[in-house]
Amino acid sequence: MNNIKAQYKAINALLEANKGKSLTVKLMAELTVLMSSKVVSKSHISDDNGNVVAVFCYYHKKWELVEHIEYGSKASTKSGLNTMCKVGVNQWTKQQKEFKSEQTQILADIVNGDLSSENAKVLLEEANEYKTRVIPIDDKFQEYSTDEAPIVMPTKKVTKKVTKKDPLVDDENDPHSNH
Ligand SMILES: [Zn+2]
C-alpha cells in the first residue's frame, strides 16, 4: 500500500496491525476515536469541536470513550471531566474506605494481643494490594475501553504561532463562529 493519504496513514497502520483479525468492536472503538479526534493529550482526546471523545481513566488505566462510559464533570481539569469514570470513582472510593477500616482493625487486633506482628504484616500487605488493585470495568463497557492510547493523526498545527485568532480572545469563550 503506497498511496495512503497522509490523513489516513494512522488508520491504515491500525488496520495493517490487525490484519487477519476480524474487525472487532474494540478496533472499531479505536477507529472511532482516531477518525473523530484531533487534539490529543496524555489524559484526554477531543474532536475538532473541542468535545472530549476519550479520557485516560486514572482508575482503570485505560482509554475510555466518554460517549459510552460515564464521567462526572470537574472544572479544574483540562477536559472538564473527572480523571476517573464514575464506576472508577466509586470503586476507588470503596477500596480506600475498606483499606482504612481493615488497617484500623489490624492495629486494634495488635493492640489487643489478638494478632502477631508477623501476621499483621501479611494482612497489611494484602490490604495494601487490595487498595491498589484495579477491578476491571463491567464486561458490557469493555468494548469502549482500550489499553493503548488511540493512534491519532499527527497535527501539524502544534505551533507557537497563533495565526488566525485574536490573542485576547479566550478559547473557552469563543462564540459560535458559523459565518
Ligand atoms: Zn474507568
What order do the helices and strands follow? Answer: HHEEEEEEHHHE
Structural class: alpha+beta
Number of DSSP-assigned strands: 7
The overall pLDDT average reads 79
Unreliable segments of 5+ consecutive residues: 152-162
Q: Roughly how much helix do the residues carry, as a percent range?
A: 25-40%
Strand order of the largest sheet: 1-2-3-4-7
Work out the radius of gyration: 22 Å
Q: Estimate what percentage of residues fall within beta strands.
A: 15-25%
Number of contiguous helices = 5
Largest beta-sheet details: 5 strands, antiparallel
Name the shape in a single word.
Answer: elongated
Cα(first) to Cα(last) distance is: 39 Å
Are any ligands bound, and if so which? zinc ion
Count of discrete domains: 2
Describe the structure.
The chain is an alpha+beta fold and 179 residues long. The chain folds into 2 domains: 6-84 and 137-155, no CATH class; 90-132. It is 37% helix and 16% strand. The protein has 5 helices and 7 strands. The chain has helices at residues 9-17, 25-36, 86-111, 117-132, 139-142, and strands at residues 37-40, 44-47, 52-57, 62-65, 71-73, 81-85, 145-146. Strands 1-2-3-4-7 form a 5-stranded antiparallel β-sheet, covered by helices on one side. It has a two-stranded antiparallel ribbon with strand order 5-6. A hairpin with a 4-residue loop joins strand 3 (52-57) and strand 4 (62-65). The longest helix has 26 residues, at 86-111. The model is unreliable at 152-162 (pLDDT under 50). Zinc ion binds next to strand 6 and helix 3.
